[in-house]
Amino acid sequence: MDRETYERFVDALLAAPVSEFKEWERDTPYFEGCLPIEVMAARGRIAAVRRVSDEALAVTPSKRDAPRIPFGQLVETRLLEPGEVLVSPCGRHEARVRVDGTLVCAEATNSIHKVGAHVQRAPSCNGWTYWHIRREGERVPIDVLRAQLRAATAD
Questions:
Q1: Which of 123, 84, 122 is nearest to 103 (CA)?
Q2: Backbone φ and ψ of 131, nearest 5°
Q3: Which positions of the chain have pLDDT values less than 50?
Q4: Which of 101, 106, 139, 150 is most exposed, with the fewest beta carbons within 10 Å of its own?
Q5: CB contact burial 86-125 (16+ within 10 A = b; e otherwise)
Q6: Helix (H, G, I), strand (E, B), or coil: what is residue 64?
Q7: How far apart are CA 124 and CA 126, in angstroms?
């Protein structure tokens, strides 16, 4: 019998109806070799289970599980200033931050996502990763500011 056939046999055995012990059989000690076959199969399955470390069982939190941070909160907490210029990753497009947490560019005024989609002529845009600020001569995604705000509010 090959392993696959054996595994199917054990699966069928464990899925089959089990007869209950009679009252006088319940406390009867059995030698391992005299146990009902379904009990031996179940014990074998349990013995084959490998223990894993707690680290291996840890679940990485998803970005969707993180608290929602509205863009306007970056302005409220002064991580961004009204009038500050945001730029696209390539530097081709610019938009200014407004005091109400919207962006304005030459042709549009709306959310970071809608203005990002508009300037790219795209149906949608993740404004958090599209728009960047200049900090110390580097372009930094505004998502970094959102992460800072999340960290500060988590404390």
A1: 84
A2: -85, 140
A3: none
A4: 106
A5: bbbeeeebebebeeebbbebeeeebbbbbbbbbbeeeeeb
A6: helix
A7: 7
